[in-house]
Amino acid sequence: MPLVEIAWWTPSEAYLADNSIIKPALDFLKTVEGCKHIYSGLSETDTDKTLFLFIVWETYDHHAALMAHPDYPQNVGLGPTAGSEVSVTHVAFTKDVDASLSAPVTEILAMTLQEGKTKEDFLKAGQAIAEQLDLANPKHAPVTWGRTLEDEKKFFTTVGWDSAEVHKEVITSAPLVPSRTELRNAVTFHMSRAKLVKYA
């Protein structure tokens, strides 16, 4: 499977006023060898906003070549969009991410293994809930997950939804309660919902 770069940061006031200021950076990224797809969009809550960027690379080496450029990261041109430091990780997802990233709303789960828990504990809980979600939400299946290259205890999962309301309705339904409980016992997590736009 291709490797996915996930970047996120607090958007600048300039971006919030005019989100088209990210376009030159995305136009540049589309030209980089090995870049397959790009998705970008905003996650909002009552207390904070986060700008997400997902880049699907053919291999990690393709992104590594870009990062090795002496002018990186300034040459990418994301600076005007950023109101904070940019966080970046790389995830080897087990299934195709395009279905979940192309949905009207994308649930993004950043997860860390609980103390004493293993990858196998996460897989047991995660696979059970993923199968249930794919049955309940087939339009945007599959649920997909992957471990980060930077930390073997950290995982990301993406799930596509028609709306935040559908997400809440399905995830709080009675059949999912045991699987959700098992997952919470295996990992701590931070959940975001973003409306992503595909640029390439």
TrEMBL record:
It comes from the Eukaryota. This is ABM domain-containing protein. It comes from Gymnopilus junonius.
